[in-house]
Amino acid sequence: MTPKSAAAAARSHPSPTSGSRSRPTPRATVLGYPRQGADRELKKAVEGYWKGRITADTLRETAAGLRRDNWRRLADSGLHEVPTGDFSYYDHVLDTSVMVGAVPARHRAAVEADALDGYFTMARGAQDVAPLEMTKWFDTNYHYLVPELGPDTVFSAHSAKQVAELREAVALGHTAARPVLVGPLTYLLLAKPAPGVADGFEPLALLDRLLPVYAEVLADLRAAGAQWVQLDEPALVQDRTPAELTALARAYRELGALTDRPQLLVASYFDRLGEALPVLAKAPVEGLALDFTGPAADNLTDLAAVGGLPGKRLVAGVVDGRNVWINDLAASLTTLATLLGLAEQVDVSTSCSLLHVPLDSAAERDLDPQLTRWLAFARQKTDEVVTLARGLAQGTDTVAARLAANRADLASRAASAITRDPAVRARAAAVTDADAHRDQPYAERTAAQHARLGLPPLPTTTIGSFPQTDELRSARAELRAGRLDGTGYEERIAAEIREVVSFQEKAGIDVLVHGEPERNDMVQYFAERLTGYLATRHGWVQSYGTRYVRPPILAGDISRPAPMTVATTSYAQSLTDRPVKGMLTGPVTMLAWSFVRDDQPLGETARQVALALRDEVADLEAAGTAVIQVDEPALRETLPLRAADRPAYLDWATEAFRLTTAGVRPDTQIHTHMCYAEFGDIVRAIDDLDADVISLEAARSHMRVADELAAAGYPREVGPGVYDIHSPRVPSAEEMTALLGTALEAIPARRLWVNPDCGLKTRGWSEVRTSLENLVAAARTTRSRLS
After folding, report:
1. How far apart are CA 6 and CA 308, in angstroms?
2. Among 662, 10, 659, 620, which Cα is nearest to 306's?
3. Which of 1, 129, 183, 526 would be 231's cystine partner, CB 3.0–4.6 Å?
4. What's the pLDDT tens digit per position in 130-143?
5. Structure pTM?
């Protein structure tokens, strides 16, 4: 919708509050903020606590200092309200489970013995206790801990964390601090039935039990000084059933009717609200926070169509909280001016929490200053919000210099030679349908591959990475600092590859990997070797718990100047007679785990990345690599939140994977890998990838994916994971044998592989050695039982 048509729509639904009475002055806020600190202090403190290097009190002091610094910086930047309660030691959904007393039975003893240690046991597990399942937060690369609920779940209010953090902020002078909670609908819609619960149970059935707990928490927050509370309901931007919309109306009718509560701001983001918008517009809550960026821009049209929000507050998310490009301030002011006619009060905000972007682009001193002008991380986005609020409240003349500089920066990016490479564009335009399909059908390929590889039934392998030791990290740091030359660094990498290959041979693994010791990250490593990408030094973003990544920035057209993995793969293969997999990150994941350019369709960018990776696949095959794995863990993650948008996405996403892999010979085996997602939503797309073997996360989800693939008639080879690598616990051979038995109920032995859930880089060698030895033992035991 154009600004002109949006303005017309707003005029056709004038706010009943318009007239002589002045409107409240627009203010600035954000929906959430990064937790980690400028130097990932939170990560270091939590991991230090796990290792016994610091006490719980020291951990709490570090966390309090980070919260204090964040609030001070946000207030000093000009925000009227600062968020509280969005800070977490591990995950905000896990915090919500604790807040409402939804602690699984297997974790209760640990929580009762020590609340902090019990919290981390829920997140990470212990040797004899499995953790909660982990999966992706909507279509982001953030992972949340999935609540486990059942008909017998009893909720109870435990608001100590939320109240204490609010009181901290108020005591520091932030009297307009706004607590942030996961809303009750989203919490239940994200939950899953607990293990052992009979089929057919829906967590949403517990809504009437949950609402009184939220009522109690809201009363506690009001008593602690909260004027507003933000209830995040991003699940509402997905397709919702009539029954779910009825539950939404009932929930907010009940919460809105409470007398002992703060004012309620219901926040939703990542897409348009659609059919949930009229329900919330009529609900007895005081405000809505809506996303107006990307696909959520349609919220403007929809808001006008329902008559706006008369008498309510609108927090307008016009600054993109998920990507790193600077805002078009003039365009945002046009949108905001239109929104002024649609609500009693319009405040300016980010589209979602800034959890999903790095902290400060000013720290990127290695980037060309010309390029940093195009970037806005969390601190810069906060400044953009404040600028827009000032321009909206006081007129554009008050921010004229900032608007002029913004126009110049936008023009600089659009005209830069970095963004367009005619040769890359010509090659992508010449792609034909035949380029994205292998010449032989799967049945013919698999026979050739089995003859070439000669593997036993239930072949064992790993996903790719092995532990990233302190020695490896130190070697990279020494290389960057100039204390280690290139030859010395390569010698250390070669020594690590020798150790990894030797261990795998001794353990009895059938298809080996080189361990990826040279790779800092599965996306960043390749981004640093492709044209068109920018790599940061300090651009850390939380993926889960204490796992932080530095997503590269996809700024321009993509090509591959030289081979990226051939030397290390060939060296590993020279050390063994067993096949060694070539390891690549697929085109969709290269986009999803980067900050992608926003000036062309994603499908066009994916095709460019696929062609660059296709060159690498060809070089690996030419070097004799018989098995090539192209990981696509983000295929499900990037699935649009609305079903109507999914077919177009899956068309270009699966084409990009096939374009990467379709040029190989029939006896070259193509693997792919996916983890921590709802695979049942994309089984058809998994088939359309036409990979020969897929490995999938399955241990935490109790092998559910095996049944989903079997029900869909998936015809290819599958490795559902039997070792949960996101927990420090070492699974026994008997446990993994039992999981293999479950998998065999759905997948024939001739198509079943044995592998961990994911790569091993985050684990320690002591855990990995024993776990993989147990994995091989489980495979051998299960082979011996095959008839």
Report:
1. 12
2. 10
3. 183
4. 999 998 999 998 99
5. 0.90
